[in-house]
Every structure is written in C-alpha cells, then in structure tokens.
Amino acid sequence: MTLLQLKYFVEVCNNGSFSLAAKELYVTQPALSSAISNLEKEFDIKLFDRKRYNLILTKAGEFFYDRAKTILEGVNIFESELKDISKNQVTIRIGVPPMIGSFLFPKIYNRYLLDHVGAKFEIWEEGSLSIRNKILNKTLDIGFSILNNSENEQYDREVILETELVYCVSKTNKLAGRESLSIDDIKNEPLVLMREGSFQTRLIRNMFSKIGAEPNIVLVSSQISVLRNFVKMDLGGAFLIRELLDPDDDTIVGIHFEEGLSLKIGLLWQKNIELSTAAQEFIKHIINTKV
C-alpha cells in the first residue's frame, strides 16, 4: 500500500467516478483502476459495489475511506508545517464546504488579498459537519460552515449570509413547473446528494426519516459539478443553495421547499484557544466586511 494508492482511492470516492477522478489526477483510467484493484487484492477486500450510474462504498470501503483521508490529511499538514518553518511564515488552514466554496469563498478571498498581499491559505474541502470536527481537533484553524444548530457548540461564530436550500431538477423534469414542494412530493424521486459529513445531507435524511421513508439515492459526490450534471441530465434531483443557480442557465430549475430550508452561512473557530495572528486578522476582515 502506498500514499499514491490512497490518494487515488480517495479521489475516486470524492468524485463518485473513476473517469472523473482520472481527469482530476491527470492519469489514465486504467492506471487508476489498476491501483485500486491492487489495493483490494493486497488486503483481500472489496472497496466498491459498482452500479450503473454510481459507485457505492462497501463497509470495508467506508472504513478504508475514513482512514485513508486521515492519513493523507496528516501528511499534508506535516508537509505544510515544514514548508512554513523553512520560510518563516504562517499558513491559515481553512475548511470550505463544496457548495460554499463554489460561490462565496472566492469573493472573500479576493477581497482579503487586496489588503493582505502574500497571505497564505490551505483550503480543505469538507462538509460542514466534518469541518466542525476538524476545528475541534485543531486540524483546521477556522472554517466556513452552515451555522444552523451550532449556537450551543464549542465555537465562536460570525454569520455572513442567510439563504435557503432549494430542490433542483432538470427543466424537463415532471416537477419543474411546481412553485413549491414538500418531502412527500419527492419521497420516491431519485436524489443526488453531497457526501456524508455535510449539513445538507443530514438535514435531508432527517426529513425523510420523519415521514418513515428512505431516500432513493442514485449518486453521492462531493463535487458540485457532478451533481449539476446529473440534474441537467434528469437523472435525479439535488438540494442546492439558491446562490448556486445561474440566472442565465435555464437547464436547472430551483423549487422552494414548503418545509422552509433556510440556512445561515458563516465562519466558525474554536472557543478559548489562541489563534495565529494571521487567522485572527482574517476573522477580523470577515467581521468588518460583509458579502
């Protein structure tokens, strides 16, 4: 087992596809498949159940994914800290959920660099729930997150934006003409979801649980582009933040949910710890500059 094999495996899990992972890694799909096949042979385990449009992690695969991510994260932190020591500088490690990272963080980043030339960030793309855990174990300094239900947790917080989740379908979908929907309306519809660790996925699973139903999940991915493409092809519906809808793109329709899926998006950091001066400066910038 090598670090490269672990990297390949995690990238396939994150993309939900061998072909997409191969493009991200700039390797051939056969090379990627061979590396993961060798992992399965080495430990005599099956990592994936392969279905028509989806790769489902087996129990062994879920265990392997969690441990592989932890190992790679540790290596990345170690390498980053060594580079900082050699250059006498500080890197701010920030967690950014995929949905927030696709529309909010770039704006904040660009504004910050105007006044802080040379600032260095290390971005960790994780779900909001995973980011909260990594802040507590000090893997991350600060993190963007869905702030719903975080008031009583061990964090300081700053709200940046209030928005909502909308149910998104292809313009050709039978539900595309509806002005609003309830959970009963979609209980049998195919869904594409963010990977576990995201606030949205937990919220959606809880809604289904309340009506005694199991969501018909056809794809799980951490890549917004993958979710969009599945929606456009009418292969499933997805819950996305309203700001992710492009007013110039009519191929995806966002429908308000009657349950009222309002969200607070903001920044989190652990209470009662001493952050680096660089991290404190970034938080001050967020507080003084609203999107």
In whole angstroms, how far apart are the ends? 45 Å
Mean pLDDT: 84
- SSE string: HHHEEHEHHEHEEEEHEHEEEH
Reading off the top of the CATH hierarchy, the class of the largest domain is best stated as Alpha Beta
Treating each run of at least 4 consecutive H or I residues as one helix, how many helices?
A: 10
Radius of gyration: 20 Å
Q: What's the CATH H-level homologous superfamily of the largest domain?
A: Periplasmic binding protein-like II
User: Helix/strand/pairing class, anyone?
Assistant: alpha/beta
Please write out the topology:
Blueprint: H1 3-15, H2 18-25, H3 29-43, E1 48-50, E2 55-57, H4 59-87, E3 91-96, H5 98-103, H6 105-115, E4 120-125, H7 128-136, E5 142-146, E6 155-170, E7 180-181, E8 190-194, H8 199-210, E9 216-221, H9 224-232, E10 238-241, E11 252-257, E12 262-270, H10 277-288
Helix pairs in contact: 1-2, 1-3, 1-4
Q: In a few lines, what is going on in this structure?
A:
Helices cover 43% and strands 24% of the residues. It has helices at residues 3-15, 18-25, 29-43, 59-87, 98-103, 105-115, 128-136, 199-210, 224-232, 277-288; strands spanning 48-50, 55-57, 91-96, 120-125, 142-146, 155-170, 180-181, 190-194, 216-221, 238-241, 252-257, 262-270. The chain is globular.
